[in-house]
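C-alpha cells in:
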C-alpha cells in the first residue's frame, strides 16, 4: 500500500463571445510550464487584488484535448490495467468547461471517449500478444472483461442512466465489491463503440429526465464507471495458474459548483439547491477533514452524509489514484466563483489516498490457503522432531487438512472463472431488459410530457376565454366611460352656461340664491360623474393589466406547448433511436453470442478431451510401470520355467533316447528272436502283429515328442510377440492370460510326458517279458 496524494489539474476555457460583448475582461493568467494560476480582482485596487496558486497541472485556453488525455488519462489507464482504481472528477461552476473536458465533441473528443478508445486498443493488444509489455506468451493467456455503469445523483436520489426506472437505488459496501450501487446496471462491453453507445444513451436519458424535472443536467452529478477485470492464465508443464485483477475507473461530472453558494430561493428549487448543496458541501467537508487527517489530526470523515461522498469514498482518502479537474471561467464577472474553485482545488491537493493493487478476493483466499499448506508441509517435515519433542503432530490429520485445502483452492479457482462467465451471461440478460426499459422509461417520460402538453392546451383555452370575457368587459366599460364622459361634458357645458346666468343676476335676489343652489347641486353631480369616471378608468386599466398578464401567460403557455411538442418529438425520436439501437445490438450480438457459445462449447469439449488425454497419459504411465514390472516378473518366470522345461526336456529326451536305445536293443533282440523263431520255425501271425504294434507305438512316440517340442517353441514365440506388442491394459491382460495358459499347457505336457514315459516303461517291461517268453 502506498500513499498517493490527490492530484489537481486546472483548465480555463476561452472567454465567450457573449462575455466579450458584455465587456468582460479576463481575470486569469496561467503559466502552464510552472503550473501556476494568477487571479485578479479588478474591483480591488490593493496589492492583494491578485492571488497566486500552484497545482500539478495547469491548462491554458490553447490546451488541446489530446494533451490532457496524454498527461491525465494515460497514467490512469496504465494503473487501471495493473489493477489500481482511478477517479477523475470535474469541478467548477456551470459553463466553466467540465463537460467539455470530460466529453468534448466528435471533432475534439474529451477524456471519456479517448480513455475508452485507448482502453480497448490496449486490451486487444495485450490479449492478442501484440503488446510489447511481454506479458503474453505462448503459455500465458490474458483476457479482459470490461463492464460499464452510468448513474446520476439528483436531489440525493440515484438514478440508473442505463436502465432508468422508479426503483430507488442504494449504495452498499462489501469486502468483495467495495462501495457499489445495488441494482445499478453493469453492462459488459466488447468494444469502444459499445461503451460510447451507452455513454450517449445515458447522457440522452439524463437530458430527458432533466427536461421532465424542469431542470438542467448541470444540476445533477453524473458518475460513469468503467470496471476492468483482467484474467491471466499461465500454463506450464507442471501446473496451470489463474490470476485475477480488478480495477474501477470513475469519471465524475459534478453539478455546477455555484449552487453550493447560491441556493435556490423557494419551493422545489430551494430543496434542489439544498440537496445539490448537500452533496457538494459534504464533498467540501470530506476534503477538509481529509486535509486535517493528512496533517496528523484525528478527525471524523463525513462520507455518509451525502450520496456523492459515499459513492466517491474510495476515491477520497481511500484506495484510488484520484485527480480533480477544476474548470475555470476566465471572465472577471465570475471572479468570485473562480476564486472559490481555486481555493477548493488547493484544499483537495492536501488529500492523501492509500493506493493498493486490487486482487480478486478469491485470489487472496487462495494465497492464504497456499501459505497455510506450506506451513503444514513445514510442520509435517518437522513431524519427526516434533514427535521426539513430544508435541504429538498428527501427520495424517494434517495431511487430510492439506488435502481439503487443495480441494478448496481448486473450487475457488473454478469459481473464479465461473463467476466471470456468469457475469457475462447476466450482463447479456440485462442488456435485453435494459433495451426494453430504456424504451419504456422514455415512453413514460413522453406520457408525462403529453400530459403537460394537454395541461398547457387547457390553460391556453382558459386564458383565451378569460381574455375574451375581459375584452367584452373592456368594451362595455369603455362605452360606459364614454357615455359618462359625454354626460359630464354636457353637465359642464350646462354649468358654464348657468354660471354665466348666475353672474348676471342681481346679488341678494332670491333667483340668484336659487341658481346658486342649482349650481352647487350640478357641481356635486359633475363631481360624482368625475369620480365614477376615475373609477371606470381604474377598472379599465386593471382590465388592461389583467389582459396584458393573460397575454404574457398565453405567450408562455404557447411557448411551453411548442417546447413540449419539440421535447415530445425529440424524446420520441430518442426513444425510437434507443429501441432501434438496442434491437440492432441485440440482433448483432445474438449471432455473435451463439457463435461464442458454440466456440466455448467446442473449447470446453476440447479441454475435457485434453483432460481425459492427460488422465489417460497418467494411466498409460502407470500401466507402463505395471507392464515393466510384469515383464520383469515374466522374464524371470520364463527363464526359470525355460530352465526347468529345458532340464525336463533334456531329461525326457535323454530318457526317450535311452528308451529308444533300449527299444532298438529290444528290436534287435526281437529281430534276433524273430530270426531265431524263423530259424526255430516258430512263428505265427500273432507275434508279427505284436512287433508291428510295437513299431507303430514307437513311431507315435517320436511324433509326440516332436509335437511337444513344437508347442514349446510356439509358446516362446507368442511370449516374444506379446513383449513387443503395443502396451496397454488389454495387453497386460492378454499377457496374463497367455502366461496362465502356458503354465497350464506346460503342466499338461509335463503330465503327458510322464504318462508317455510311464507307458514306455510299461512297454519296455512288456517287451522284455515278451523277449523272455520268446526264449531270450
Ligand atoms: N477548453 C475549451 N475550449 C473551447 N470551448 C470550451 C472549452 N471549455 C468549455 N468550452 C465551451 O464552453 C461552454 C460551456 O462548457 P461546458 O458545457 O463544458 O460547461 P460545464 O461546466 O460542463 O457546464 P454545466 O455545469 O452547465 O454542465 C461550451 O459551449 C463549451 O463548448
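Residues out:
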Amino acid at each position: 500500500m502506498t500513499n498517493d496524494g490527490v492530484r489537481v489539474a486546472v483548465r480555463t476555457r476561452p472567454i465567450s463571445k457573449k462575455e466579450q460583448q458584455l465587456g468582460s475582461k479576463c481575470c486569469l493568467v496561467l503559466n502552464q510550464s510552472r503550473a501556476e494560476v494568477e487571479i485578479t480582482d479588478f474591483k480591488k485596487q490593493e496589492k492583494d487584488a491578485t492571488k497566486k496558486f500552484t497545482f500539478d497541472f495547469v491548462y491554458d485556453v490553447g490546451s488541446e484535448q489530446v494533451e490532457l488525455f496524454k498527461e491525465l488519462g494515460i497514467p490512469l489507464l496504465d494503473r487501471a490495467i495493473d489493477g489500481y482504481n482511478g477517479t477523475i472528477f470535474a469541478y467548477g461552476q456551470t459553463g466553466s468547461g467540465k463537460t467539455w473536458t470530460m466529453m468534448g465533441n466528435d471533432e475534439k473528443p474529451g477524456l471519456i471517449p479517448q480513455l475508452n478508445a485507448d482502453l480497448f486498443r490496449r486490451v486487444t493488444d495485450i490479449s492478442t500478444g501484440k503488446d510489447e509489455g511481454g506479458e503474453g506468451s505462448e503459455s500465458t493467456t490474458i483476457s479482459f472483461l470490461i463492464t460499464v455503469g452510468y448513474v446520476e445523483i439528483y436531489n440525493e436520489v440515484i438514478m440508473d442512466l442505463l436502465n432508468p426506472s422508479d426503483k430507488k437505488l442504494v449504495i452498499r459496501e462489501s469486502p468483495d465489491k467495495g462501495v457499489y450501487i445495488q441494482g445499478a446496471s453493469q453492462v459488459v462491453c466488447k468494444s469502444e463503440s459499445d461503451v460510447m453507445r451507452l455513454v450517449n444513451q445515458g447522457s440522452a436519458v439524463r437530458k430527458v429526465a432533466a427536461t421532465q424535472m424542469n431542470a438542467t443536467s448541470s444540476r445533477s452529478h453524473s458518475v460513469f464507471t468503467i470496471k476492468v477485470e483482467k484474467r491471466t492464465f499461465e500454463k506450464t508443464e507442471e501446473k496451470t495458474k489463474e490470476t485475477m485483477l480488478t480495477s474501477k475507473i470513475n469519471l465524475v461530472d459534478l453539478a455546477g459548483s455555484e449552487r453550493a453558494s447560491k441556493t435556490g430561493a423557494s419551493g422545489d428549487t430551494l430543496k434542489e439547491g439544498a440537496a445539490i448543496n448537500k452533496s457538494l458541501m459534504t464533498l467540501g467537508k470530506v476534503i477538509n477533514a481529509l486535509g486535517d487527517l493528512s496533517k496528523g489530526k484525528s478527525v471524523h470523515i463525513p462520507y455518509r452524509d451525502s450520496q456523492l461522498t459515499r459513492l466517491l469514498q474510495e476515491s477520497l482518502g481511500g484506495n484510488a489514484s484520484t485527480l480533480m479537474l477544476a474548470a475555470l471561467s476566465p471572465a472577471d464577472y465570475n471572479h468570485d466563483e473562480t476564486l472559490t474553485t481555486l481555493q477548493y482545488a488547493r484544499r483537495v491537493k492536501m488529500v492523501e489516498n492509500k493506493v493498493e493493487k486490487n486482487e480478486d478476493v478469491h485470489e487472496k483466499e487462495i494465497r492464504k490457503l497456499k501459505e497455510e499448506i506450506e506451513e503444514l508441509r513445514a510442520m509435517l517435515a518437522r513431524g519427526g522432531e516434533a514427535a521426539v519433542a513430544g508435541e504429538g503432530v498428527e501427520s495424517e490429520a494434517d495431511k487430510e487438512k492439506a488435502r481439503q485445502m487443495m480441494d478448496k483452492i481448486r473450487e475457488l479457482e473454478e469459481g473464479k472463472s465461473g463467476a466471470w462467465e456468469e457475469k457475462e451471461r447476466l450482463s447479456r440478460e440485462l442488456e435485453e431488459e435494459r433495451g426494453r426499459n430504456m424504451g419504456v422509461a422514455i415512453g413514460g417520460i413522453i406520457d408525462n410530457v403529453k400530459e403537460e402538453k394537454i395541461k398547457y392546451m387547457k390553460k391556453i383555452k382558459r386564458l383565451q376565454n378569460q381574455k375574451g370575457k375581459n375584452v367584452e368587459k373592456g368594451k362595455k366599460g369603455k362605452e360606459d366611460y364614454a357615455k359618462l364622459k359625454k354626460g359630464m361634458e354636457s353637465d359642464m357645458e350646462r354649468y358654464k352656461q348657468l354660471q354665466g346666468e348666475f353672474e348676471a343676476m342681481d346679488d341678494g335676489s332670491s333667483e340668484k340664491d336659487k341658481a346658486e343652489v342649482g349650481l352647487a347641486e350640478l357641481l356635486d353631480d359633475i363631481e360624482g360623474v368625475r369620480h365614477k369616471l376615475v373609477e371606470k378608468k381604474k377598472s379599465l386599466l386593471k382590465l388592461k393589466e389583467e389582459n396584458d398578464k393573460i397575454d404574457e401567460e398565453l405567450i408562455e403557455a404557447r411557448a411551453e406547448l411548442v417546447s413540449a411538442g419539440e421535447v415530445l418529438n425529440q424524446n420520441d425520436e430518442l426513444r425510437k433511436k434507443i429501441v432501434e439501437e438496442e434491437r440492432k445490438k441485440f440482433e448483432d450480438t445474438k449471432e455473435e453470442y451463439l457463435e461464442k457459445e458454440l466456440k466455448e462449447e467446442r473449447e470446453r469439449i476440447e479441454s475435457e478431451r485434453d483432460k481425459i488425454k492427460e488422465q489417460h497419459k497418467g494411466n498409460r504411465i502407470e500401466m507402463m510401470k505395471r507392464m515393466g514390472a510384469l515383464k520383469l516378473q515374466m522374464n524371470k518366470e520364463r527363464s526359470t520355467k525355460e530352465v526347468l522345461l529345458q532340464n525336463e526336456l533334456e531329461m525326457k529326451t535323454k530318457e526317450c533316447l535311452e528308451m529308444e536305445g533300449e527299444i532298438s536293443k529290444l528290436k534287435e533282440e526281437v529281430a534276433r528272436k524273430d530270426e531265431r523263431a524263423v530259424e526255430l520255425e516258430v512263428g505265427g501271425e500273432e507275434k508279427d502283429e505284436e512287433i508291428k504294434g510295437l513299431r507303430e507305438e514307437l513311431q507315435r512316440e517320436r511324433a509326440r515328442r516332436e509335437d511337444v517340442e513344437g508347442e514349446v517353441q510356439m509358446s516362446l514365440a507368442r511370449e516374444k510377440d506379446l513383449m513387443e506388442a503395443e502396451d496397454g491394459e488389454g495387453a497386460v491382460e492378454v499377457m496374463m492370460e497367455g502366461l496362465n495358459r502356458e503354465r497350464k499347457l506346460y503342466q499338461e505336457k509335463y503330465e503327458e510326458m510322464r504318462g508317455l514315459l510311464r507307458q514306455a516303461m510299461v512297454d519296455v517291461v512288456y517287451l522284455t517279458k515278451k523277449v523272455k517268453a520268446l526264449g531270450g
